[in-house]
Amino acid sequence: MKNPFGPEPESFHSYDDLKKRMLALIQTRKVYDQIFQVVQNAYENALNTENVVLSRAERKRMFAQILKAILEDMIQKLESRSRPS
């Protein structure tokens, strides 16, 4: 609800404003790059452990598929944790 008598106080922010600010702060800390790097390192280690030889294109394609599956799994786990019991 807007204040009809003047600007909103600095301390008042909507949930969406707060969410946008938190997302921006996290993005500046390169969290996406860190998550990507962790999964990529685990993927490379798994390939080395299994002695798997793939072409560069195959490695990229498989990594993209695995990264997507991991992120989807993380989203499902997050959603199941936020559901009321």
Instruction: Characterize the main sheet.
Output: none
Query: Mean pLDDT, rounded to whole units?
Result: 87
Determine the N-to-C terminus distance.
32 Å
What class would the helix/strand composition place it in? mainly alpha
Strand content: under 5%
Please give the domain count.
Answer: 1
Notes on the structure:
The chain is an all-alpha fold and 85 residues long. The chain has one domain. It is 71% helix and 0% strand. It contains 3 helices and no strands.
Short description:
The protein has 85 residues and is mostly helical. The protein is 71% helix and 0% strand. The longest helix is centred in the last third of the chain and has 27 residues, at 56-82.
Kindly list the characteristics that best describe this protein.
85 residues; mainly alpha
Q: What's the topology here?
A:
Blueprint: H1 15-28, H2 31-49, H3 56-82
